[in-house]
Write a structure and sequence with these properties.
Elements: H1 3-33, H2 38-61, H3 70-97, H4 102-126
């Protein structure tokens, strides 16, 4: 790993942390205040945080990647849809089968999906 890639990973973690706060906060708000079922809230919060994350990845994390072609955008969106599916499966497994509180389950789901996201989004944004 070179110095530039290390800096990129640090930026990715910062953006991921901010995106997680958006996701986590919206999950709580949608479930507790809006009254949505936790899996619906999870889908809404995840989708909004992915859009926010994409924008920050393009302008801040992956330097020089501002111009995206159709293939890169499609790969990014496709990987995000799969990430949403992984998120929803993890949430369901942790809440329904393990009996975990949904907000704690979100933390575990995020760790799993983050690995997928970095690999796929780096490829999508870098080409």
């Amino acid at each position: 790993m070179n110095k530039d890639q290390f800096k990129e990973i640090i930026r990715f973690c910062i953006v991921g942390g901010i995106s997680f706060l958006v996701d986590y906060g919206l999950l709580y708000i949608c479930t507790e205040f809006v009254g949505l079922y936790y899996l619906w809230s999870s889908a809404v919060s995840f989708t909004i945080s992915v859009i926010f994350n994409y924008w920050l990845c393009v302008v801040y994390v992956f330097k020089g990647a501002k111009k995206q072609n159709r293939k890169q955008a499609t790969l990014f969106i496709g990987s995000s849809i799969i990430g949403l599916g992984l998120n929803q499966i993890c949430m369901w497994l942790f809440v329904e089968l393990v009996g975990m509180y949904y907000m704690l389950a979100k933390i575990f789901a995020t760790v799993i999906v983050t690995i997928w996201n970095y690999v796929m989004k780096r490829h999508a944004v870098r080409g």
